[in-house]
């Protein structure tokens, strides 16, 4: 996978989640977010987490890219 090609990363993360590998999807999406904030990454990353963990993770994501509209 090309690490900067967001559509491919999102499809791969969707495939992992669909196969029951939510932790794998979260790992892929977390690494992608560290490289570049993108709304599709954030949306999928938060959706892959249990509801109780989403707000905490959203704040963490924002802290990684505070100047970004997505972050």
Helix-strand layout with pairing:
Layout: H1 6-18, H2 22-35, H3 39-47, H4 51-64
What keyword list fits this structure?
71 residues
Q: Please, could you describe this protein's structure?
A:
With 71 residues, the chain is mostly helical. Helices cover 70% and strands 0% of the residues. It is built from four helices and no strands. α1 packs antiparallel against α2 (22-35) and α2 packs antiparallel against α3 (39-47). The longest helix has 14 residues, at 22-35. The chain is flat. The chain starts with 5 loop residues before the first helix and ends in a 7-residue tail after the last helix. The mean pLDDT is 87.
Which value, in Å, is the CA radius of gyration?
A: 11 Å
End-to-end separation in angstroms reads: 24 Å
| Number of strand elements | 0
- The portion of residues forming beta strands comes to under 5%
Short description:
The protein has helices at 6-18, 22-35, 39-47, 51-64. 70% of the residues lie in helices and 0% in strands.
């Amino acid at each position: 996978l090309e690490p900067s090609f967001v559509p491919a990363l999102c499809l791969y993360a969707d495939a992992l989640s669909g196969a029951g590998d939510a932790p794998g999807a979260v790992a892929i999406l977390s690494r992608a977010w560290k490289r570049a904030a993108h709304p599709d990454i954030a949306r999928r990353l938060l959706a892959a987490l249990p509801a109780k963990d989403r707000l905490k993770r959203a704040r963490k994501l924002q802290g990684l890219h505070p100047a970004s509209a997505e972050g």
